[in-house]
Design a protein that fits this description.
Layout: E1 24-28, H1 32-41, E2 48-52, H2 55-64, E3 69-73, H3 81-91, E4 97-101, H4 106-114, E5 119-122, H5 127-151, H6 158-170, E6 177-181, H7 187-196, E7 205-209, H8 216-224, H9 241-244, E8 249-253, H10 260-272, E9 274-275, E10 284-285, E11 289-294, H11 298-303, H12 309-315, E12 318-322, H13 332-347, E13 353-354, H14 356-364, H15 370-384, E14 389-390, H16 414-432, H17 437-443, H18 448-458, H19 467-473
Helix pairs in contact: 2-3, 13-15, 16-17, 17-18
Length: 474
């Protein structure tokens, strides 16, 4: 570790990561004595040390150097510790920030943890303890990067850290997993990641939404398959999901919607690892790993008599709870960065950033649709914005402070209003894709036939750049 002292002016004295690529640690504290003390605490740890006497200087250092961990005080001039952590998390969402606090600042320390601080240390602190916390933060950064690449789960909040640890442990096994959480929290992504990192990764991954079938008989037919003549219209044998998923994973989404009769049949499959196709007489063996998910509280469903207790126990071997986005808002900057990169790449736009005002607006929203809703918001902003940065104005009015809708005395023509909005989206998609109708349809989740019809209906103009090629290829 290299530290240069000029009197007590400890700012940033280390070089950028060089041949040793030692971890870069930033100490932000307005007291010379504290900066000096911490420099000696980490003297023999092999870190590149940086020092800032205020929040503004700390932000400058983070822009100039590849900082791995920040240790900051809560009381500093010019910019207090709470404001500093807000800005750090906006600019560097994955950066672990450790708070040093006195007992009198306890409420601010709690607020800092809510904003995404990695940990806090009370004054006076134990030297060994602070060294251990920094090592833990460095390991967390490394593991987070590995997990994101491996499991495609984005976030650094304590709740997501817990999910990642469970996922890492249970993925290589054949253990049954029950994922619970509200709609849009990413239950399907967790299930897919568990399969992709399991010993069955080369086998099929089949997802079935138990609530998407018009009748219980239809769900049973899809799960178990049927033989010819099992019912009217069954003109040939049909394999069910249990057979198609053999040697792989069967993901039963929204299992709380499953009828009690089907629950009995499915319980038998888990216990005996065999099933009987509808209308069949010979059981078939199945070698499948089961992952289930639900937006319901299954324990309450059991008490209400709507879900079998024995099936619940069979499914709930390893429970994973995905909290709603409103309970882990510190993950929003990371998610926004991820979705910006994803959607810019998808439509061929240069990388975009988001302004602090726009990000603050997203942080203050309650997100009833969770991650899925945030994904759609960023997709829309990228699609409609032709600049390099997402501003507050580019966000839907849904995410601005709520104002009561006032209808004019004469009312409105709702169908025409919706058509106006539809026209704007389709025209924006055509401009974004430079007139490529097929790609514009994909952005709006419309079939080629649907988008062609709407272009003709609204008499929309197609940018000339790709119009000739598009017409010749369709």
């Amino acid at each position: 570790m290299q530290i240069l002292h000029k009197k007590m002016d400890l700012t940033s004295h280390s070089k950028q990561k060089s041949e040793k690529t030692a971890p870069n640690i930033l100490i932000a504290d307005d007291e010379d004595s504290m900066r000096l003390l911490l420099s000696f605490v980490f003297k023999n740890e092999g870190y590149q040390m940086h020092f800032a006497e205020n929040g503004k200087k700390a932000l400058e250092i983070c822009e100039k150097f590849p900082i791995d961990v920040v240790i900051q005080d809560l009381k500093m001039p010019e910019m207090d510790g709470i404001e500093l952590i807000k800005r750090l998390k906006q600019r560097h969402p994955k950066l672990p920030v450790i708070i040093i606090t006195a007992f009198s600042n306890w409420e601010n320390a709690v607020e800092a943890m809510r904003l995404g601080a990695f940990d806090y240390i009370k004054k006076p602190f134990d030297n060994d303890n602070i060294r251990a916390i920094v090592k833990k933060a460095l390991q967390f950064s490394k593991h987070t990067a590995e997990f994101e690449e491996k499991f495609q789960i984005i976030g650094s909040s304590p709740a997501i850290r817990k999910v990642l640890e469970i996922a890492k442990t249970v993925a290589p096994t054949d253990t049954t997993v029950l994922i619970q959480g509200e709609n849009g929290t990413g239950k399907d992504m967790i299930a897919s990641a568990l399969h992709a990192n399991s010993l069955r990764a080369d086998g099929p991954f089949i997802a079935v939404n138990c609530g998407a079938f018009a009748s219980d008989n239809l769900l049973k037919s899809e799960l178990f398959g049927h033989v010819r003549g099992a019912y009217t219209g069954a003109i040939s044998d049909k394999k069910g999901y249990l057979e198609l998923a053999n040697k792989g994973t069967l993901f039963l989404d929204e299992i709380g919607e499953m009828n009690l009769t089907t629950q009995v049949l499915f319980l038998r499959v888990i216990e005996e690892r065999s099933f009987l196709p509808l209308g069949g007489t010979t059981p078939k063996k199945t070698d499948v790993r089961f992952i289930a998910a639900t937006n319901r509280n299954l324990e309450k469903e059991v008490h209400a008599g709507r879900f079998r207790q024995d099936l619940f126990y069979r499914l709930n071997v390893i429970p994973i709870y995905l909290p709603p986005l409103r309970e882990r808002k510190e993950d929003i900057p990371l998610l926004v960065g991820h979705f910006l990169a994803k959607h810019c790449k998808k439509i061929g736009k240069p990388p975009m950033r988001i302004s602090e005002n726009a990000l603050e607006t997203l942080m203050n929203y309650h997100w009833p649709g969770n991650i899925r809703e945030l994904d759609h918001v960023i997709q829309r902003a990228v699609l409609l914005n032709h600049g390099e940065r997402i501003e507050k104005i580019h966000l839907s009015s849904s995410y601005q402070p709520k104002e009561k809708i006032q209808l004019p005395p004469s009312g409105i023509h709702l169908e025409k209003k919706l058509e106006e909005i539809e026209k704007q989206y389709i025209q924006a998609a055509l401009e974004t894709t430079h007139g490529h109708i097929t790609k514009a349809g994909e952005l709006l989740h419309l079939s080629l036939r649907q988008i062609r019809y709407k272009i003709q209906k609204y008499n929309l103009s197609i940018p000339l750049k790709n119009q000739k090629n598009e017409n010749s290829s369709q």
